[in-house]
Amino acid sequence: MKPTKLSLFFAILGALMLLTSPAWSHSGHGDEEHHKKGILLVTFGTSSPEARAGLDNINEIVNRAYPDTPVRWAYTSKMIRRKLAKQGEQLESPAQALATMQDEGFTHVAVQSLHIIPGSEFHDLQAVVQGFRDMSGGLKRITLGRPLLAEPESLERVKEAVVENIPAERKRDEAVIFLGHGSDHPSNAFYPAMAYIFRQADPLVFMSTVHEGAPRLEPIMAEMKQRDTETAYLMPFMSVAGDHARNDMAGSGENSLKSLLEAENFKVKTVMKGMAEYDNVVGVWLSHLDQAMAHLDQE
Under DSSP, is residue 43 helix (H, G, I), strand (E, B) or coil? Predict the structure, then answer.
């Protein structure tokens, strides 16, 4: 990528970050003496029991960081909520969870996004939070913590954390391909940004996406061949190692990353751990929650 194009790319990315910056404050309603703080963790969700390990890890870390603050959960995926409901597990949407917390007497709530990028799901969450800000007689204050990738500092922190999590047995001439979901939202630009930052740290660490957007797998395979790289580690760049990781990344179907690489005679090793299973990555989300919690106390 030429320097002029790179500068333009990060200028556009910077504009996206400004557009997704949350409005922290919410003017209070009524009596300011009664405070009941709460935390709402919001994720896309998963119906895979194995993938729940990541969410359980986040829950444990947040409860340890804020032992005196009740923690609630919400899933943004209607499909997953319906699937879990059929199994007897009731999960609420962000709007439902905030309404429940309001009914339970919470006055100050920090909502923390556990999404990877500020894409469509995050913007929908922003709209829900804004709706509760505008509600007369509702919560006195509500703040919103940013997703994992939010500003240049968080991209650098994620890069450092993720590189540390590459299996120790990986050899320097072996490739590592992180798989993100991808999106048709403009915030998909965070994935090429991470790809660039990864490559600065290690020329054989790549980023690809499942369905939409860039980066794609084909140029990665072409470069691996050019570098005579025979082996690739596949790792999810998603909060949990759910259906996408198990099917689109490591599945036996002909269009999975594993199958596509093996069809080109590459050896493939898969790592079935989501980003939320690594404490150092969760630390980035936690820092965003820390900011949201700090703003709860600001008038």
Answer: strand
